C-alpha cells in the first residue's frame, strides 16, 4: 500500500506539472536591443494570355528593436533597418538591389541604403501584437527627397511602391507574422489558440492561425501554427506598378516557432504560405480593356534573432 501511495503521489505531481498554466509573453528589458533577421523566398507563377510567367523573389533584411520604455502592457520600441536586399528572377532576366551595394548608378540600391539606420517607432503589446507604427511615411519621403534626379510621376510611383512594402500598415503586418503568436490567456502544453492578423501591402489579406504549444525545452517555448489566408473580396483596386490591380487569393500557412523562455523574443521562426487565385487588372492605358489571369504563390520565410 505504501508503494501504491508513493506511485499515486508521483503521478499526481507529474499530472499537475503537465497541466501547469504558462503565461507566454514578451519580457523585454528597457535599453536592450533585440534583432530580427529575415530571409524570404517567393515563387510566383502567372499565366497571361496562355503564356506562363515564373518569377522568383528573395527578400533579406535585418532589423533591430531597441526598447525605449515599457509598462505593464506595452513596449515602446525604436526600430532600425540594418540591411535590406531584394533579388528577382524575372522572365526577362535577373534584378538585384542591396542596401550594402556602393554603386552611385544603382538608384534602387541607393534608396534601400537610405532606409538603413533611419529610426522609426513601434509599440508592441506583451503578446507580440504591434499596436502602432509611426514616422515611417516621413522616413520614406525624406529618403526620396535626397534623390533630386527623381521627380514628378516617377517619384510618386516609387513612393507608392515603397509605402506598399515599407509603410506603417505593411510593417505592422510583416512584424506581427513573426511576433504575434502568443495567446492572451495562460496555456498548458498542447493547448491551442487562434490569432487573426491583417496584412496590408500590394496584396491585402487576412490570416487566421491556430497555434499550439507543442513543447517546452530548457531554453525555448516551441509553438506550431496552421492557418488560412484570404484576400478581401470587397476591397477596391489598388495601384500596383502604376496599374489598378485586385487580388482574389486564398491559401494555407504553417509556422514553427521557438520563443526564448526568458525574453519571449522569437529566436527562430520558419513559415510557409501556399496561395492561389486570380489577379484582375482594371482597364487602363497600359492594359486596354483590362485582364484577369490565374496566379499562385509559394512563400517560405526564416526569421532568427541573430
Write structural notes for this entry.
This protein is an alpha+beta fold. The chain is about 20% helix and about 50% strand. The chain has 5 helices and 13 strands. The chain has helices at about 1-20, 105-115, 135-145, 150-165, 170-180, and strands at about 35-50, 50-70, 75-90, 95-100, 120-125, 130-135, 190-200, 205-215, 220-230, 240, 245-260, 265-280, 290-305. It is globular, with a radius of gyration of 22 Å. The model is unreliable at about 1-5 and about 5-15 (pLDDT under 50).
Write a concise synopsis of the structure shown.
With 306 residues, this protein is α+β, with helices and mostly antiparallel strands. 21% of the residues lie in helices and 50% in strands.
Total beta strand runs: 13
Shape designation = globular
Mean pLDDT value: 88
Distinct helical segment count? 5
Q: Which segments are poorly predicted (pLDDT under 50) over 5 or more consecutive residues?
A: 1-5, 7-17
Could you tell me the strand content as a percent range? Answer: over 45%
Helix percent band? 10-25%
The profile of the biggest β sheet is: 13 strands, antiparallel
Rg of Cα set: 22 Å
Query: What class would the helix/strand composition place it in?
Result: alpha+beta
N→C terminal distance: 55 Å
SSE string, helix = H, strand = E? HEEEEHEEHHHEEEEEEE
What are the salient characteristics of this protein?
alpha+beta, 306 residues
What's the layout of helices and strands?
Blueprint: H1 2-18, E1 33-48, E2 51-70, E3 74-90, E4 93-98, H2 107-115, E5 120-125, E6 130-134, H3 136-145, H4 152-166, H5 168-179, E7 192-199, E8 205-216, E9 220-231, E10 238-240, E11 243-260, E12 266-281, E13 291-304
Antiparallel strand pairs: 1-2, 1-13, 2-3, 3-4, 3-5, 5-6, 7-8, 8-9, 9-11, 10-11, 11-12, 12-13
